[in-house]
C-alpha cells in the first residue's frame, strides 16, 4: 500500500524536485502540494494523506502553527519538518507542535524516504546533524519546565500576530482569517495585554524572536 504524502514548501521548484525524487520509491505517492501552512490545511482536508513534509519558515502561516493545527484536527497524520533552519528555536517549536521528524534540507533524498518510513511506523526520526542538540535542549527544557511564552496565546491570536508582523493591516487580516475588523482589533488588544507589549514594532520583534515569522 502506497504512503500518501503532502508536500508543503513556499518554493515551487523545491516541491517539484521533492515530488520527483520521492516518487522514485514505488510505495510513496505525493497526493498534494501547498505553498504555506494555510494552504496545507485546505489540501489535507480534501486529501486522504498519511504524512506531511513541512517547511518551517513560510509566509501567511508558518510550519509551526500549521503543524499544531494539523495535529489537532488530524492526530493520526505524521508531520516531518524539512527545513534549512537548525536553530533550537525552530526545532523546539516544531517538536512542541507535534512533528514526528526533523531533517535539514541538505539531507539525502534517501534520508527523507527513510524518515517517512520511520514515522509511519510510529517512531521518531531526527537528522543526525541536529539530534544531539535537540535531545540536550529538549531535556533541559523539560527539566526546568520552561514553557514558551507563546503558549499563553490562542491559535487564532498566534495567526493574527504573524500577520501583523508581516505588515498586514486590519482589513487584510480580517479578510485572511474570515472575521470582522472588530474581531481582529480585539485579538490585537488581547495579544498586547498578554505579552505586555504596546506597539506594532514590539509585536513584530516578538514574533521574529519567537520564530513566528522572519525579517
Ordered list of secondary-structure elements with their pairings:
Elements: E1 3-8, H1 12-22, E2 28-34, H2 37-46, E3 51-54, H3 63-73, E4 78-83, H4 88-97, E5 101-104, H5 109-120, E6 125-126, H6 128-144, H7 155-165, H8 170-177, H9 181-195, H10 200-209
Parallel strand pairs: 1-2, 1-3, 3-4, 4-5, 5-6
Helix pairs in contact: 2-3, 3-4, 7-9, 7-10, 8-9
List keywords for this structure.
10 helices; Arc Repressor Mutant, subunit A; 2 domains; 53% helix; Rossmann fold; six-stranded parallel sheet; alpha/beta; 215 residues
Helix percent reads 40-55%
**Biggest sheet descriptor:** 6 strands, parallel
Stretches where pLDDT is under 50 for at least 5 consecutive residues are none
Total count of helical runs of at least 4 residues: 10
Brief overview, please?
This protein is α/β, with parallel strands linked by helices and 215 residues long.
Structural account:
The chain is of the alpha/beta class. It contains ten helices and six strands; from the N terminus they run βαβαβαβαβαβααααα. Strands 2-1-3-4-5-6 form a six-stranded parallel sheet, sandwiched between helices. Strand 3 (51-54), helix 3 (63-73) and strand 4 form a beta-alpha-beta unit. The termini are far apart. 36% of the residues are buried. The model has no long low-confidence stretch (mean pLDDT 90).
